[in-house]
Request: fold
Amino acid sequence: MNFCGIDLRDKPIFQAPMEDVTDSTFRYICKNLGGVDVMFTEFVSSDGLIRNGRKSLQKLNIADYERPIGIQIYGHVPESMVEAALLVESAKPEFVDINFGCPVKKIANRGAGSGMMRNVPLMVEITEKVIKAVKIPVTVKTRLGWDENSKNIEDIAERLQDVGISALTIHGRTRAQMYLGKADWTLIGKVKNNPRIKIPIIGNGDIDSPEKALEMFDQYNVDGIMIGRAAIGKPWIFNHIRHFLDTGELLPEPKIAEKIEIAKNHLAQSAKDKGEFGGIMTMRRHYVQYLKSLPDSKDYRLKLLTSSSYQENIEILDQIAEKYNNQ
Reply:
């Protein structure tokens, strides 16, 4: 498959951009475990980039081992989006991705993210201006529509293709659904199989197992799949899906001790990237998912979520590994 001028293997897997999740540390862990074909940074505010916001600028830092990688931006003012896209281009990613899908209230209600689905002409205008301003490919990620009564993704896909996007990722929910209910892949399939659509279509939503990944490829003929929330606390999912797609063999779930070792590596890299305290704070959102399947783990989770000591975090994780040895 050709994606933004990059030759990818058959049935490629994309790692979804997620705020406060897909930072450089998480990308490092996922990449080392294998299976990811295309990575994304966290999404970045166009206004934050223009104001030289320290946190926003840090999100532009990418490493060679992460490639191919895209930097995703969001906003609702054409001039700001163009300026932000030019800053992104200077960071030298393989492509810039525009977020027209984030459902979070503070973003959507300002008209950015999925809020743009209520103003398709502005969405198209912003996309066209960004494409004309930068020399690297431009892609878009969006949803089915604003709500159940306005699923306009088929029209949006054609209009965005017409102004020159290189690929489109579709999350199979409306903005009104947020992340609730079941993702509807029917419309994703309709967009992909529309004779007018020539660009790659990436499907996103509810892929949480190798079997589900293969089903989406086979049933809806998408060019790629994107994994988001299912990778939090389970960064090996990309490798397990890749192995199944390539061989038809299901890899066994990692033993608890293996999961804890991955969590410890994640913590160590997080502390390296952000300092011990910053690394610990970042890990708190991941610990809950790493320990989700453990029996009687409530006390350990509480300890990890209240400890501010790096060494204590390591000791608690070691205690868990020892307690659940061979499970």
Notes: The mean pLDDT is 92. The radius of gyration is 20 Å. The first strand starts at residue 2 and ends at 3.
